[in-house]
Structure formats: structure tokens, C-alpha cells
From TrEMBL:
SMART domains: PKS_KR (SM00822). It holds the Pfam family adh_short_C2. Residues 26-54 are annotated as: Disordered. Belongs to the short-chain dehydrogenases/reductases (SDR) family. Keywords: Oxidoreductase. InterPro entries: KR_dom, NAD(P)-bd_dom_sf, SDR_fam. It comes from Rubroshorea leprosula. The keyword Protease does not apply. This is Ketoreductase domain-containing protein.
Length: 320
């Protein structure tokens, strides 16, 4: 018989900050800094304590794999025994990443807004390695970082963002499914965002595109589960990458890149940790591997609790 676990001790404390008061639960337990460790795309050590190579013999295709979260994930997958096809619209960066990641990485030029190029990238994986086990639809753009009011929204810009962030994902899912359904197995991943969980965290086109992804995942999971194929998405908090640094630099045009990175790293809520590319890579590794063999239709939020609460914003004493 299952015994109820003792409730974790929690104390609610009144915090005063910026002249405002709010209640917060104390003792997140993360102050030791144990959340912040680990490796990154540059190959620093992995302190996850995982044993063995969890993608041994697997073949993965990662869109937007030339930089940022895609590159970090490619590096992590290779470390765990996978052979990785990096599909990216930036050929120069893609070839450079291929060289950096070594012989287990192969770059294919691919603009995810062009279905034929996505189909070709999948074909390349199958032609080179005879199969496709993991398809990570990760390529995405933010669009203009200083959003106009919805009343002034440029529908061309909206379409542009949706074509990459939603159309590109769907093309990737479609062409992966064409290989995985006959194989009777496979794991499809998509990168969403916390901007797809709460309003106000990004420009409207970006946020709307990211809200769409968990819906796509559920819809497609309903069909693919009958074929033994899993599909999930990952919703990260802000992480300093080329895209996010450029977007935030537009908001703080006078700031140095280092300052912009500090701003991004300071956006989190979890004490003693910041969101890093390796956190997404590890989430992707879990979902891609057999450890997640019964996980499908899921949105794995990697945000240090950011989207799970909102504090009551009481007025300051002077107001009362
Ligand atoms: N960095 C963050 O803060 C953050 C947070 C949440 C979600 N995300 C999402 O993570 C994903 C990866 O972004 P990143 O932060 O690593 O940015 P990044 O700029 O480092 O990488 C994005 C990659 O996608 C490629 N790309 C862009 N358009 C493409 C297209 N049409 N076809 C193929 N490749 C294309 C770029 O060339 C680049 O290599 C995106 O979907 C983004 O929305 C990022």
C-alpha cells in the first residue's frame, strides 16, 4: 500500500521589494547552487550524473542546429552516442558547427520554410544512416523585438514568424512521420517557449507561434501514438543565444553584449541557478531517449518555476 509522503516544510514569508509587498513561499532548496552546474555546448563537464550513453546508435536531425540551443543539443546527443544531422539556413555557421562537433555531425543547408528542403534533410539522414530516430524541430525566430500594439500589427511580419516557427515545425513533423510511421518508432521534439505559456513575454507573432506548438504536439500525438512514435515539446525560459541577445539588445541599445547577457540571466526566479543551453539539451536528451518511452504529447517546461506563479503585488506602506 502506498503511504502518503510527508509534506515538504514550507514557510510563507512577507517580502518587501521595490516598495511593494508580496507573499512568497520560502526555502526553494536551490541556494546551494546545485542547479546551476553542468556542461555546455563548448564541451564542459556534465554533472548530471547520468550513466552510459543514452542515444547509442541513434540518428537525430536537429533544425536550427548551427547555433544556440540546437548546437548545444547536437553536442550533447553526440556525447551520448548519436549521429546528428544539423539542418540550418545559415550555411557558413552550419559548416563551422559541423567541424566543431566532429565526424558524428553532418550539416545540411535547410530553410525550414521550404518543405522540399526539410524533406531533403530527412532524406539525407536516411541515406547516410539508414534511419531517423529523433527529429528535433528547433529552428525559430523572434521577429521584431519591439512589438507594436496589436492595433498596428503588420500581418506580413506575423506570417513571416509563423512560417518559420509553426510552418517549419509542421514540415519537420510531417517528413519525420513519413519515415517513423513505417519504422514503428521514433521521437519527435519541438522547441516552444515560456512565451507560449503566458501572455506578455514576447512580441505577439512570436508568442502566438509558441502558444501553437503545444497544441500541434497534442494533436499529432493523438495519431502518432498508434504507430509507436512519440512527440513532445520543450518550453525554455530566456537563455543568452544569438537570437535572444539580438532581441534584448534592441530594447537596450546602449548596453554592451555582456550587459545584455546579464539582463537575460537575471530574468529567472530560481535562486542559485540560471537557464542555460545545456538545460534544454538535457531535457531534449531525456525526451529523445528510451527513458521517456512512455512520454508523449507533453510540454516539458524548463523555466525554474517562472510560469507557475505570480506574486500578489501589494501597495507600499506609504500608499496606505
Ligand atoms: N534563447 C532563448 O531565450 C529561447 C527561449 C525559448 C525558446 N527559444 C527557442 O529556441 C529555438 C532556438 O533558438 P536559439 O535561442 O538557440 O537561437 P539561435 O539564433 O542561437 O539559433 C537559431 C538557429 O535557427 C536557425 N534558423 C533560423 N531560421 C531558420 C530557418 N528558416 N530554417 C532553418 N534554420 C533557421 C538560425 O540560423 C540559427 O542557427 C527557437 O525556436 C527559439 O524560439 C529560445
Amino acid at each position: 500500500m502506498l503511504r502518503p509522503l510527508p509534506l515538504l516544510a514550507r514557510h510563507r514569508s512577507l517580502i518587501v521589494a521595490n516598495g511593494k509587498k508580496f507573499y512568497s513561499t520560502g526555502g526553494s532548496g536551490s541556494g546551494s547552487g546545485s542547479n546551476g552546474g553542468g556542461g555546455d555546448s563548448a564541451g564542459h563537464s556534465d554533472s548530471s550524473g547520468s550513466s552510459g550513453r543514452r542515444l547509442e546508435g541513434k540518428v537525430a536531425l536537429i533544425t536550427g542546429g548551427a547555433s544556440g540551443l540546437g548546437k548545444a543539443t547536437a553536442h550533447h546527443f553526440i556525447k551520448h552516442g548519436a549521429r546528428v544531422i544539423i539542418a540550418d539556413v545559415d550555411a557558413k555557421l552550419g559548416l563551422q558547427t559541423q567541424r566543431e562537433l566532429g565526424p558524428q555531425a553532418h550539416f545540411v543547408p535547410c530553410d525550414v520554410t521550404l518543405e522540399c528542403q526539410v524533406a531533403e534533410a530527412v532524406q539525407t539522414a536516411v541515406a547516410r544512416h539508414g534511419k531517423l530516430d529523433v527529429m528535433y524541430n528547433n529552428a525559430g525566430i523572434t521577429g521584431h523585438s519591439i512589438p507594436p500594439s496589436i492595433a498596428d500589427l503588420d500581418l506580413e511580419e506575423f506570417d513571416r514568424v509563423m512560417r518559420v516557427n509553426v510552418g517549419g515545425m509542421i514540415a519537420g513533423i510531417k517528413h519525420a512521420a513519413r519515415v517513423m510511421i513505417p519504422a514503428g518508432s521514433g521521437s519527435i521534439l519541438c522547441t516552444s517557449s515560456i512565451s507560449g505559456l503566458m501572455g506578455g513575454l514576447g512580441p505577439h507573432p512570436y508568442a502566438i507561434s509558441k502558444f501553437t506548438i503545444p497544441g500541434i504536439v497534442k494533436s499529432v500525438a493523438s495519431e502518432l501514438c498508434r504507430h509507436g512514435v512519440r512527440i513532445n515539446c520543450i518550453s525554455p525560459a530566456p537563455i543568452p543565444t544569438k537570437t535572444s541577445i539580438t532581441a534584448i539588445a534592441h530594447i537596450f541599445p546602449a548596453a554592451t553584449t555582456e550587459k545584455v547577457i546579464d539582463v537575460i540571466n537575471g530574468l529567472g526566479e530560481l535562486k542559485g541557478a540560471k537557464c542555460e543551453d545545456i538545460d534544454v539539451a538535457r531535457a531534449a536528451l531525456f525526451l529523445a531517449s528510451d527513458e521517456a518511452k512512455y512520454v508523449t504529447g507533453h510540454n516539458l517546461v524548463v523555466d525554474g518555476g517562472f510560469t507557475c506563479f505570480k506574486n500578489l503585488s501589494f501597495p507600499s506602506d506609504q500608499f496606505l
